[in-house]
């Protein structure tokens, strides 16, 4: 005998699933269009990766045309901006190998660690104390400048579980100051103001420029060897994403500990540890890439798919972003990014000089 009262929930569930799938498909088609736009010579020449173009295009759509999208698709957009990005960040590790990092030796590692730690600390402090930003916006802005631009913002956004507009502000800082570096650094080098040899140029460019593409674009104006060194140093910074995310997860978990007078009330409820498991996946992919388990063609194909998945995530974040939310903290977030940029140029140059002398 049938049970009609179960038919309605089942139909509602099927409708919800269809809506989510349609939302994911919509984001995928949007990301495909974004990828085509990003491949145009005028855009690619500016070092604008599909990730950056995706969040800009998504934000334009989200604020101008979002009302035209069926409400049931929102779940698919949210899936792309949350769960898909975790998977994509994990597979980003296939772009890094331990052998490449070893090529630049201890000097590249020390440069990367000092830049990442100091920039994260300065950005969080300046954002929260000087600019009065909320914790998440300050950390996201610092992460984008310290580690690997938009990809780091995505990874931190997932761990912090922050609002999409906060990620958009951080990515805006990456776009502005990273693009500026791509044009400014080669000019400073040609003018002789940096006083760096080829190794120093690689350390400085790779250690302080925001996006991988921006590093390559800037260093290619110097020499092939400088580009090689800069890219490896940059990927060393990417590797540091794992320990930093694990430390962030533990810090968040400690911050959520109940007060002493609430301990008894919460004792029976196990707290969820804020560990970014996709960071472990990232490290596993680095190991796989280092062992050369996969054929080069397979790794290349997975990296292409991964870039597309990250583009989907950024596009979805853009769709969920509201200009009104950005406007509230926009100038303060931009000033935080500017403070970090001055630090990366001036402080980063000083760190590079010190590292070169230390390992001369």
Automatic annotation (TrEMBL):
Keyword tags: Cell membrane, Membrane, Transmembrane, Transmembrane helix
Predominant localisation class: membrane
Keyword Lyase: no
Membrane topology: Multi-pass membrane protein
Annotated TM spans: 21-40, 46-64, 108-126, 138-156, 168-188, 232-252, 273-294, 300-321, 333-355
InterPro entries xrefs: UPF0324_pro, UPF0324_YeiH-like
Keyword Repeat appears in the UniProt entry: no
GO cellular component: plasma membrane
Compartments where found: Cell membrane
Pfam families to which the protein is assigned, alphabetical: Cons_hypoth698 (PF03601)
Family the UniProt entry places it in: Belongs to the UPF0324 family.
Name of this chain's protein: YeiH family putative sulfate export transporter
